[in-house]
Design brief:
The protein is of the alpha/beta class and 452 residues long. 49% of the residues lie in helices and 9% in strands. It has helices at 9-18, 24-28, 31-35, 48-58, 62-72, 95-107, 123-137, 156-166, 185-196, 215-224, 246-255, 264-281, 294-298, 302-314, 321-334, 344-358, 367-374, 388-395, 398-403, 413-418, 427-435, 440-447; strands at 2-7, 41-43, 78-80, 113-117, 141-147, 173-178, 204-208, 229-232, 259-260. The chain has an eight-stranded parallel barrel with strand order 1-2-3-4-5-6-7-8, surrounded by six helices. Strand 3 (78-80), helix 6 (95-107) and strand 4 (113-117) form a beta-alpha-beta unit. It starts with a strand and ends in a 5-residue tail after the last helix. The relative contact order is 0.14.
Length: 452
């Protein structure tokens, strides 16, 4: 069997190890070689969630990133995990804004594959009927993911049914996203056949993290069960909380009798260049981790932990990381076991950090928890399993009335534009202002100058 690879270096590798701090120039230095190395797909950080990181923290224009990856990797299939979410530019996102965002991304030729989840926040009932046709009309492939977790309600039968449900949307690929690196060999041997056997011949991919050190073994086991596409990263942005190294997985796949089309000689200089960048910028270098049972308890993805540690350090609370992770376990139970993936994992650890900092559970509550209790994120989020006392408390807050239902009305684009500068503002500038809630942070980004 020929094994295909999705490269995650620029998107999930950077998110997991560098808190998404990979600047335009860092990617530009190696993008051309990565684009020619034989990957079936290359992930790039051009989803809306990364736009905010570029503007607020890196002070770089994300549209520069979009145009650069299109220019440097013209023939690569470019994808992003945030290619489709219910509220790509914050909850709630009006459909007119969501459409405009993806239209501009497609016009820049920055994405030609949209990756979206089917079982995290109500996409199949609320989003897919309009986003999937939109992606198709924009000329994009569609890969629909099933996010893996461990809970009383996420059984093999659950995943088999979700796989069958996905087929109605005629995806180009189905992928199992193990964002916490939680798959064991025993679970993989029952779960993966349940997905592959119900996929109706649609190619199945596997995306996992090395958080619990079992992922390389699970990848090789998956090859024996009909999964021919694996998500890997290039060192120094491989291993640790990131994906396995493309070099080790490709080598072991060949030792199992499979073939690969990756030009590893072309990637060796990429490793050297990225390692030099990491050393110059004092950024982490991915290394294998020790086995940690705690990962199966809190289930927080590596990329979220990376960003959480970065944010706690800014609050002088880094020493309380373990407390925050422990508190997140209780919050997840209270909320009915949502899957620890974007956006649920982010707002659960945010609420956890607030609880730890204030010394009181739910004294101060973020809006996202109230929206969760209202069912904005769909039945799959777990809100029907929520602790009823907590749900009543959240829904009874004055803020719940202010938020309304949290569901966007179909606001015309003209009406939105009128509040953000009027007809003279370009579409790309409008989107930046919308996601940053005004011009202040956008102007600060522009004042910092062009990407270096």
């Amino acid at each position: 069997m020929e094994v295909r690879f999705v490269d995650t270096t620029f998107r999930d590798g950077a998110q997991s190890l560098w808190a998404s701090s990979m600047r335009v120039g860092m990617i530009e230095a190696v993008a051309e070689d990565v684009g020619r190395a034989g990957f079936a797909v290359v992930e790039v950080p051009v989803g809306a969630v990364y736009f905010k990181k570029f503007i607020r923290d890196l002070k770089e224009d994300p549209w520069d990133m979009a145009r650069m990856v299109a220019r440097k990797m013209p023939h690569a299939v470019k994808s992003c995990m945030a290619g489709g979410t219910l509220n790509p530019l914050g909850a709630p996102t009006p459909r007119a804004i969501a459409r405009l965002f993806y239209e501009r991304i497609a016009a820049n030729k920055a994405l030609n594959r949209a990756q979206t989840f089917a079982n995290t926040y109500g996409q199949m009932e609320n989003e897919f009927p309009w986003t999937i046709p939109m992606f198709r009309n924009l000329g994009m492939q569609v890969a629909i993911g099933l996010s893996y977790t461990i809970s009383p309600r996420h059984t093999d039968a659950y995943y088999a049914q979700k796989t069958r449900d996905i087929l109605a949307f005629k995806p180009d690929a189905i992928y199992l996203e193990d964002q916490g690196g939680l798959l064991t060999l025993d679970r993989a041997r029952t779960l993966i056949p349940a997905i592959v056997g119900n996929a109706g011949g649609v190619p199945v991919e596997l995306h996992s993290h090395c958080t619990t050190v079992l992922t390389p073994l699970v990848y090789l086991e998956a090859l024996q069960m009909g999964v021919a596409t694996l998500h890997c990263a290039i060192p120094p942005l491989a291993d640790g909380p990131s994906q396995p190294s493309i070099f080790s997985i490709a080598r072991n796949a060949r030792l199992q009798g499979h073939t690969t089309a990756i030009d590893e000689a072309l990637l060796r200089p990429v490793v050297e260049r990225l390692t030099a960048i990491a050393m110059q910028e004092k950024l982490p270098i991915g290394t294998p981790l020790e086995y940690d049972c705690a990962q199966y308890v809190h289930q927080v993805p590596g990329g979220v932990i990376s960003n959480l540690r970065h944010q706690l350090a800014g609050m002088r609370m880094e020493h309380r990381l373990e407390e925050v992770l422990e508190e997140s376990v209780q919050i997840r139970r209270d909320l009915g076991y949502p899957i620890m993936v974007t956006p649920h994992s982010q707002f659960m650890v945010t609420q956890s950090a607030i609880n730890v900092a204030t010394g009181a559970r739910y004294r101060h509550v973020i809006d996202e928890l109230i929206l969760f209790a209202q069912g904005v994120y769909g039945e799959d989020s777990g809100y029907t399993w929520m602790d009823q006392n907590l749900k009543d408390r959240l829904l009874g807050m004055p803020r719940a009335r202010e938020l309304g239902t949290g569901r966007p009305r179909d606001i015309p684009l003209k009406e939105i534009r009128a509040t953000l500068g009027g007809p003279g503002v370009s579409d790309e500038e409008l989107l930046l202002r919308y996601m940053m809630k005004g011009t202040e942070e956008v102007l600060a980004m522009r004042a910092a100058g062009p990407p270096r």
